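A student in our group prepared the protein record below, which I am reviewing. Thanks in advance; the entry in question is below.
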Amino acid sequence: MNAFIETLEFLKKNNSGYWSDRILSELSICKKLSEINQNAYDTLISQAAQANAAAIAAVSKSTLSLMTPSGRRAYTVMIDSLSAVGGMISPGDFVDIIADVQMPDPSEGGMKEISSIVFQNIQILAVDTNLKASGQYDQQSKARSLKMTFALTPEEAGLMSFLQKHGQMQLLLRAPAEDEIELVEVASWRALADYVAEKQGTELVIPRTKASIEPISTRTTEEVKPFIQIFEGGQAR
């Protein structure tokens, strides 16, 4: 098409009269056809690029590995639906995690249970096999347990594995725009009493812990026997 247009341009310059007007008319038609073809070609390329981008986006949304943020690991735990905000939780939400664990108690020689927030602002990648937020919570709330997949650092993943073996966890759903990390005291009778006293002005009687009684160690010392030392000329004999 471009070569034909160039030929018409040459004839236009070297002819006059009827043929010049005819060539001019043909040249105008050819240029319009060329512009239409170019526009159609550009449109086709644009549509292909958009389709390719949409296909890539669809793959990224449906593949767990591509959804996992850099530096994080996808880690799945089984948790009862009541502890998972009653099942009303979706992929893309962020949660804090409370741990109820059994810890050694040196004062009593046994184990004691403590509760504390151990992880904050943790992203949920999937709920069961759902990678997208559906907003349909009826089935999740009726389920006895849910498989929750979190985005964790390698260190957090190791601690999560330890937590699964030694305790239970509960999820606290965060607001979408909230990402602050707070320093939170470990839950205890003392912490509860201090909180109630500060917020309600009420004093709670804290249960007393058992005192640790250890026998006093007695060491046998050698008996010091009396003796006489004789000095002669300022020197001991």
Summary: Strands lie at 73-80, 94-105, 110-127, 145-152, 167-173, 231-232, 235-236. The mean pLDDT is 77.
